[in-house]
Specification:
single chain, alpha/beta, 4-stranded parallel β-sheet, 9 strands, 38% helix, globular, binds phosphoric acid mono(formamide)ester
């Protein structure tokens, strides 16, 4: 197994070998992520963070990952604290951060922003979410979570629920699940269906998928309910958001007697009630923790291969 990528922009750029390599390395990183072992593999290296959109998990887990490996972190968590507010454009800002850092992490509201900046700079670029496009590092930790719980991904039956139109986590994840031979059910209101382009690509890759708007159609057959937030900030029409919000509610009553786990990339708003958190079903906080060993593995592979 090896890792062939210079940048991490879209999960579609990954081979199965690349993904398996990161998942395997993440296992090795877990004791370091849990502070049970020390590592200095990134000593002297700097990670540059450019967050044009808010984040809790992605930003803080990248920072934690770099620091657990002995490296340092620079950057901005919001543009208000940077010269973007003075009108500096994305290309110039990226060039500058790349002068100071050994790799860049960027989250941006525009789809394609990470790909664009990866063509401008020489250091590795990691897409931490580009609008409604892709969120490939989230997918890696999602796959890692499934593998930790079930010991496999192939043959799992996974329902992706909620905002499948604008949700970058489900766009990335569906490609990876298709690649690994998991079956998928897409559960959404008609207005938030998985984009036709993604459905077309998955069909071309012989992925097994079905679509429904009723969660009850899938509850008895799935291993994983992958729930997503209806994202207010992505709706061009606020009225449409108000009509659709609250379309799905996962609570312990709904899950009673079911043989499945509940995952969520987080943040949640009201789609999963807190009474699920400490049950055998709720895996979303554990899933968020796995962002650390997975991102440690990714940083280690990218930065070392660039040396
Ligand atoms: N899952 C995820 O991307 O969370 P944040 O928006 O908090 O980074």
């Amino acid at each position: 197994m090896s890792f062939s990528l210079k940048n991490v922009i879209s999960i579609k750029d990954f081979s199965k070998d690349d993904i398996n390599f990161i998942l395997k390395q993440a296992e090795e990183m877990e004791p370091v992520a849990r502070s049970q072992k020390m590592s200095q593999t990134m000593a002297g290296k700097i990670l540059g963070m450019m967050f044009y959109e808010p984040s809790t998990r992605t930003r803080l887990s990248f920072e934690t990952s770099m620091k657990r490996l002995g490296g340092g972190v620079i950057g901005f968590a919001e543009t208000g604290a940077s010269s973007v507010t003075k009108g500096e454009n994305l290309a110039d800002t990226t060039r500058m951060v790349a002068e100071y850092a050994d790799a860049l992490v960027i989250r941006h509201n525009l789809e394609g922003a990470a790909r664009y900046v990866s063509d401008i700079v020489d250091v590795p670029v990691i897409n931490a979410g580009d609008g409604a496009g892709q969120h490939p590092t989230q997918t890696l930790l999602d796959l890692y979570t499934m593998k930790r719980v079930f010991g496999k991904i192939k043959g799992l039956n996974v329902a992706l629920i909620g905002d499948l139109k604008y949700g970058r986590t489900v766009h990335s994840l569906s490609y990876a699940l298709g690649m690994f031979g998991a079956k998928m059910s897409f559960v959404s209101p008609p207005e938030l269906r998985m984009p036709q382009e993604t459905l077309h690509d998955l069909k071309g890759a012989n992925a097994v998928t079905q679509e429904t708007n009723d969660i009850n159609n899938v509850l008895d057959e799935v291993d994983v309910l992958y729930v997503t937030r209806i994202q207010k900030e992505r709706f061009p029409d606020p009225e449409e958001y108000l009509r659709i919000k609250g379309a799905y509610l996962i609570n312990s009553e709904l899950l009673k007697g079911k043989d499945l786990i509940v995952m969520h990339p987080l943040p949640r708003v009201d789609e999963i009630t807190p009474d699920v958190d400490d049950t055998k079903y709720g895996k979303y906080f554990e899933q968020a923790f796995y962002g650390v060993p997975v991102r440690m593995a990714l940083l280690d592979a990218l930065i070392k291969s660039f040396e």
